[in-house]
Task: structure prediction
Amino acid sequence: MSREDGKSFELRPIGVIKESDQGSVLKLFPAYLGGLKGVEEFSHLWVFYWFHEHDNAEGRAVLEVHPRKDPANPLTGVFGTRSPLRPNLIAMHLCEVREFRPEKGEILVDRLDGKAESPLIDIKPYLPYSDRAEDLRLPEWAMTPPSS
Amino acid sequence: MSREDGKSFELRPIGVIKESDQGSVLKLFPAYLGGLKGVEEFSHLWVFYWFHEHDNAEGRAVLEVHPRKDPANPLTGVFGTRSPLRPNLIAMHLCEVREFRPEKGEILVDRLDGKAESPLIDIKPYLPYSDRAEDLRLPEWAMTPPSS
Result:
């Protein structure tokens, strides 16, 4: 694995994803609660976590996959997929906020099923002027959601 | 700085951002070229880099900022902003691809001005079914692009 300038960076977990009956919960560690001020004003957040199950030499060495593990999809470089196998195990997910619980350091969101216990690494607001793309060109497999 | 479970993760630069007359260039290190297969089929990519200028104890301890460094904007937790000051210095930017140069490990994109020499940490495709949010609620300062 090449690190051409010899330097790597340190990511620190800021919290953890928990499951609940109402949805997924972003649970921040106490040291980071100050970072939540005003976050309740946003309906949509980008949630970043670490694909920790693959944090090993094998998982991080993968450079090509069949998207969605479907051999019918063409072998594609990981930078053209959202595969959890990739050199840096950054997961990104757009979530809608259901409930904000700042006193507990919790944000209840939709759509993170199956990611319980994953380490949170960042939260950013969805900003319409910078996060929307129009006139897209993309391969056929990427046009529709996975049939899960 | 709290790392509640004592564990941090290692991010490895996969390349670097360069400037050119035609736009910004994502230049991957040779070891990662395999990850570009098929990426030319996407018109829009999420580019992740590291806010390396702030990789120090001070920059990573900041939890509240005035968005866009404008004191007229309310003091906001960093997780409600795109501030480069935050616990994990992950930068995310939606880019349109202008030219794909796989043999050189380069992707020419728009919109990364001023980020030359920043370390690249990931590239992901923009996927319309998961990356679009509608019916947004957000604070007033976040509704329009920064007046640069």
